[in-house]
Each structure stands twice: as structure tokens, then as C-alpha cells.
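Review box. Two proteins, two foldings.
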Amino acid sequence: MKTIVTVLGLASMVALAACDSKQENKVENAYENQADALDNQAANMESMADNLSGTAENAAENAADALENKAAATREAGDAAADAVEKSEKK
């Protein structure tokens, strides 16, 4: 059953991706790349926190959390920007 659901999910994603314009994909990719960079910074910060203790460790973990939140917000902004491009192209 899981395999069928996975295949159907992938098929629908491919179908949706085919509907996207090049400009929409370009916008989405730019935001996604920025979000990935933030996630990488967060991972590096978490690795650094593992080598610290006490207040310094907490500060590093908080900074990593902030970066992860910023990455999520960047992805949401990218989705919104791509939607705006799609709407403007339909006019």
C-alpha cells in the first residue's frame, strides 16, 4: 500500500512540475538554494554546539534554531513568489 501511495505522490509531483514555467522554477530554485545554504549553516552551528558546553552551547543551539526558522521562512517566501509569477503569467 505504501508503495502505491508513494508512486501516486511522485506522479502527481511530476505532473505539477510539468505545469511550472521556467521563470517560476527559476524563482523557486533561487529561494530553495538560499534556504539550503541556511540549513547548512544551521547544521554547522549544531556541530559546533556539540563541542561547547553551558551557555555557549545554548547560544549556538539557539542560533542554529534561528537559522532553521529563517530557512523555513525563505522556502515559504519562495513558494509565494513562485505563485505570484504563475498568477502573473496567467493574466
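Next protein.
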Amino acid sequence: MNLGYRLAYRLGVTPWQAGRSIFGRQLDRLLDGAASPAPGAKALDLGCGTGDHSIELALRGWSVTAVDAVPLAISRARAKLPIAGADVRFVLGDVTNLPAYVERGYTLALDIGCFHGLTDAERTAYGSGLTAVTDPGAQLLMFSFSPGWRGPLPRGASQLDVEQALDGWTVVGDYPIDADASLGLLAKADPRFFRLVRS
């Protein structure tokens, strides 16, 4: 999947970058429902792309680390920081080996379309790593397509897929995308948000 994303960024075919305009209001409400950050509270953006969601978290008061495996995406994300006036640490790294790239102590994690494109083995490694770097009681807010074959698009993930890969995490919310979201053909993928809490 990493090679596919690298190629997509090189060709400028990155429809997921429109996420804020597609479901921004719903994401804002879901983030509002997460615990307000205490001073120094840490958030982790998984598969951050060019950093729009990472910057949003920082502007909300979180101390943000953001991880992506595509060098061009990280470079573009870093270039946005002086303009946005936000402080985010963008890390070129692998979400399936988080302890090698980030420290511990996160209380919020955000995944906008990363997990649902991983293989089963990668999902298990992602879950183990995420558990290792987060605190008990941490929340994960995840966007995913429902499972299905869609050619080059991510294969999607069900609630069961998520729970099996993230041992020790519980899905406490399953939210279909708002009916007024401008999804176009992607609406057929039955996209949704999951909210999970770590035990």
C-alpha cells in the first residue's frame, strides 16, 4: 500500500486530502466529544498525509505528533506549519511499528483512512504498537470504509475487524457519515467513524 500512496502523491491523485471539506463538520463534532486536552496532553495522527487534521488537533490545544510513510506527504505537511501557526511534529515512519518512531503517553489518536488499507498482519502490528504508545483510557477516532473489494481503493474495515486487530480497545461509537457529506461515488463504500477507548 505504501508504494501506491507514494505514486498517488507524485501524480497528485489524493482524494483523501479533501477530507476536511467532505466531512469536516462531523469530524469537528466527534473531536468535540473527545476529552478536552489538559496542558501538554498528547495526540497522535496516524497516516497523517499532508497534515490538515494534525494541524487542526494542534489548534485545539493538543501536543501533536503525526506519522506517515510517504516522504512527499510529510514534506508538504511540514511546509504548512509556518502558515497555519501550529506546532506539530511530523515524523516519517511506519504506523505498523509505532514504538520505533514515537514516544509514549498519548491520550488521543486519530486515523483518517489509514487502518482500513492495511493487511491483516499490518493491522495487528498497528494495534500492538498503538497500545504500546498510548495511556489507559486513551481514545482513538478512526475513519473507515466498510469492507468490500474496490480495485485500487482500500479494502475497508468492519467493527469486528477493528476490534480483532486492536486487542484491549473497545468500540464505544459507530457513526455513519452524515447524510449531507459530499461523498459522491465514495458513499457506496458505506464510510463511517469508529470511536474506541483503550482499557
